[in-house]
Amino acid sequence: MTIRSHIRTRLTLWYVAIFGLLFAAYICTACFLEYWQLKQQLYHAEIQDMETVQGLLHFTPDGQVSLHEEYFNRPESRFLLDRLLEVLDLNGRVLFRNRRLDGNTLGNRGLPGEGVNGFSPRSLRLADGTPVLVVSHVHVLEQTTVLIRLAYSTEPLRLQTLHFLLLLTLVAPIALIAAGFAGYRFAIKVLDPLEQMARLTERITARRLNERIPVKNPDDELGHMALVLNGLLERLQQAFEKLQRFTSDVSHELRTPLAAIRSVGEVGLQEERDAEKYRDIIGSMLEEVAKLTTMIDTLLTIAHAESGAIQLRKTTFALMDLVHEAVAVVGVLAEDKKQTISVQGDQGAIVIADRNFLRMALVNLLDNAVKYSPSGSNIEITLRRDGAESGPGHFVELAIRDQGPGIPENAQQRVFDRFYRLDEARSRDSGGFGLGLPIAKWAVEVHGGSISVKTASPTGAIFCIKLPSREAARD
Q1: What DSSP state is assigned to residue 70?
Q2: Which of 92, 98, 42, 91 is nearest to 67 (CA)?
Q3: 53 sits in which H/E element
Q4: Cα 434 from Cα 428, distance rounded (Å)
Q5: Residue 89 carries which DSSP code?
Q6: Domain 2-159, architecture per CATH
Q7: Which comes out higher in pLDDT, residue 451 or 276?
Q8: What are the domain boundaries of the chain?
Q9: Residue 40: CA atoms inside 13 Å, Cβ hemisphere, count?
Q10: How far apart are the C-alpha atoms of 89 and 92, rounded to whole Å?
Q11: What is the CA radius of gyration of the chain?
């Protein structure tokens, strides 16, 4: 629960942090837009006031410029207009400056093009530090061209924006608390399916590996995770069942030679015998021990192969040469049964592989063919290359055909399982453990090849090995 709560807390904190950053960005943007909008309103108000002022300006008899402030109906109304006004001629001489400027100026001589084409806005600070927005306009007053500058202080805009910022800042804690609550509820909702998966997975034991996690939507991330977990459970179940079968098979295989050793020893101890008899008894026991040693060595080889501990030492060689080596190894067994082994095919079939392991696979397959083929029969080996042009996917094919009883179609896949035998009694008599074909299958597949078996006509079986050619291996 601590881990889940910690994840929920972290998700909530991340959510609140991101929301806080976004809310802060929103506040800054809102305040900026608020200030910009207020400034635009102030600019338009100044333009309207400029048009009003142009109608109120006039020359006095002494040649000075004055403003008809009696235009206002009530005396206090003119104080509502917090305008700063300055009038200059084109030479920069001040013709009028209202009292609210209080000795300040809105600029010296006119800037190039100031107020010529419409109303020219600009921001500046007065000598006393007051920020203002100035609007300039060139106007013809009684046949005299003058430059009118009208300004308003932007300090009220800043204060109003600060008030707006303060209001949003006061709302921020409430928004963050609400976001935290919503984020925590959202985190619970998001993690709830994971928690359900965890509870269902916790109930799965070695005896309940057949159970699976329900997949509500295989297209989303949670559905994908459920599929991955189900795939893992499927692989675990297969591995566990395979381990159980292997343990059962090993126990069964070990029981027979151990029982034979025990039986021979008990019979030998039941009565006094001469040295020759005891030598025969010990020889029988050693023969069973040799079988056990062979089986254990083979199992260790398979275990190392499946764990990836075996490192392949690949070389480039002609596969036909390796076939002749394997035939030479099993040739003695074939001669004892008056069998012949014929080899034909492409002498130029080149592969890049570990020579020792491929030879072990071929020897096992040929030994299997010799064991199950009748005396005086012929075992055919054919080697050919598939594809007329080099390129990816090119391979060589080696077929071994015997004249034995054949393999039923429903058993053609199982013959490559460890300890599997078609004829249990005959296999034991011939000294087989059902491990030769699994080793051959591994040796072929570890080189990127495949091995299969099919029934020959009219009798026998054909074991087919496909290996990538040298060209395909290089690609």
Answers
A1: G
A2: 98
A3: helix 2-56
A4: 9
A5: E
A6: 2-Layer Sandwich (3.30)
A7: 451
A8: 2-159, 221-306, 312-474
A9: 6
A10: 5
A11: 50
C-alpha distances (whole Å) from 282 to each of 258, 290, 429 are: 14, 12, 20
- What fold, for 312-474? Heat Shock Protein 90 (3.30.565)
371 with 426: CB under 8 angstroms?
no
Find the length of the chain: 475
Residue recorded with tokens 């599997």? 420
Left (φ > 0), alpha (ψ -120 to 50) or beta: where does 79 sit?
alpha
CA count, 13 A, side-chain hemisphere, 265:
11
Give me 253's structure tokens.
Answer: 């295989």
Cα–Cα nearest to 416, from 384, 440, 449, 389: 440
CA separation for the pair 20, 448 (Å, rounded): 57
Classified by CATH at the fold level, domain 221-306 comes out as Helix Hairpins (1.10.287)
Q: What is the per-residue pLDDT across 122-169, written as a single tens digit (0 to 9) for each?
A: 888 888 888 989 999 888 888 888 888 899 988 889 999 999 999 988
pLDDT for residue 342 is more than 80: yes
* Angle (nearest 5°) at CA 16 between 14 and 20: 115
Q: Check pLDDT > 50 for residue 388.
A: no
Q: Which of 123, 125, 152, 155 is nearest to 53 (CA)?
A: 152
Question: What stretch of H or E contains 247?
Answer: helix 221-269
For 427-449, how does the pLDDT look when each residue is reduced to its tens digit (9 = 90+)? Answer: 444 545 567 788 788 888 888 88
Range 58-69 average pLDDT: 79
